[in-house]
Amino acid sequence: PPVSIIGVPTDVGAGHQGARMGPEALRIAGLVGALQARGVEVTDRGNVDGPRNPWLPPVAGYRHLEEVVAWNRALLEASTAELRAGRMPVVLGGDHSLAMGSIMAVANHCRERGRKLRVLWLDAHSDFNTSQVTPSGNIHGMPVACLCGIGPAALTGLGGHAPAIVPQQVKQIGIRSVDQEEKRLVKEHGLDIYDMRYIDEVGMKRVMEQALAGLDEDTHLHVSFDVDFLDPGIAPGTGTTVPGGVNYREAQLVMEMIADSGRMGSLDVVEVSPALDDRNITAELAVDLVESLFGKSTLMRD
Ligand code: ARG
Ligand code: MN
Ligand code: MN
Ligand code: MN
Asked: Kind of pairing, strands 170-175 and 192-195?
């Protein structure tokens, strides 16, 4: 389907400021042209609007809850409109809290059409914290829990149907930083996690075969790509880098295998922070990998 680019220039969910410049950095790195070069029909819808970052301390375990709700409501509306028009939303962040609005739109769309939804969460983090256990209050550490119905009603109920998804629909890849209490919650709720240790031991090819197993024609695949999934050596421009991440070749394989599945129906590219980057290389790498998600191949035999 044709693609609609939606920018969400916010970092109200993050612990560093800078991700609000992410959408422009991805545009400057040539995202639109790269998709057009793949033969994809693409329209850049510009950015959604929301409140500025007030940079306040947490209140009852949440930083900027009201602002995060406002941004997600705006994105939910924008993304829903694109899906209804038969278009594929490609959401440019912005911090990862925006995955709530993005995935709630997709979940509603799938529910209305009787389609299955699977979420591929490419990240160093599980983003499964709650206000009780968060070490930071930053809501970008909570979107997966909120999507699964664990969190404040203002977020869990935003899409009108809580929970938006169940943990079994989520496959997380690249995980290597989960807070202690968060780990307990992740285990309790049965998230399917392919952490770095597993990737090292089993290899990325088999990991992806497992994460993509069982996709059929009736499955919509949502890819939520936090650039801190990548090793900080190749992707320094993000607020919560963790050593020991996915390398360039592994990342290419992930993206190419997703493309080969033919099931991707929506995409988030989040946590690009130009304020922390080195000459926009993180945005440029993200665009290179998005090209692969849309079928650009490193294979000789295609
Ligand atoms: N677990 C940490 C926290 O909750 C870090 C979360 C980082 N999340 C992200 N989307 N970059 O504060
Ligand atoms: Mn994340
Ligand atoms: Mn992360
Ligand atoms: Mn590429």
From this structure: parallel
* Ligand 1, atom 6, residue with closest C-alpha: 141
Average pLDDT, the chain: 98
Instruction: Tell which atom from ligand 1 comes closest to the C-alpha of 129.
Output: 4
DSSP tag of 124: S
Residues designated as active site: 96, 123, 125, 127, 140, 226, 228, 271
93: tokens are 């962040």
Q: What is the model's pTM?
A: 0.98
Give the number of the atom of ligand 1 that is nearest the alpha carbon of residue 178: 1
Interface predicted TM-score (ipTM) of this complex, two decimals: 0.94
Tens digit of each residue's pLDDT (9 = 90 or more) over 1-42: 999 999 999 999 999 999 999 999 999 999 999 999 999 999
3-state class (DSSP) for residue 102: helix
The residue contributing the CA closest to ligand 1 atom 3 is 141
